[in-house]
Write a structure and sequence with these properties.
Blueprint (H helix, E strand, L loop, with lengths): L1 E7 L5 H15 L8 E5 L6 H9 L4 E4 L1 H6 L9 H7 L5 H9 L4 E9 L2 E7 L4
Parallel strand pairs: 1-2, 2-3
Antiparallel strand pairs: 1-5, 4-5
Helix pairs in contact: 1-2
Length: 127
Amino acid sequence: MIVVGIGCRRGSPTARIAGAVGEALKTAGIPVDGVDALAAPEFKADEAGIAGAAAAFDLPLRLIDRSRLDAVQPLCATRSPTAENATGLAAISEAAALAAAGRNASLVLPRIARDGVTCAVARGEGV
């Protein structure tokens, strides 16, 4: 299972998020049809840009609850003091990708950050 995790500033538009997802996949060398889902923290459920990106790629959006995001923090490669101050989580997109990828998840691409959007790609065995 391959999952792209997303983090973003409030109100980030669909085009900006979709562009970051596309860039992450290109960097990772993974075609869109090789991706199983997009993932984001449950506290971003009201972000229209994230839902719009999932629709643009015709992928399911998995919303990850806080306990699962907390559980995978030790597996994350990068730490953002800004994210940690705002949410209490040092890694958002990496954690979302890892948690959604399931058992034995690992990062294929650590977080990239562009214009207020972060994306990371993880591979795992599913839930």
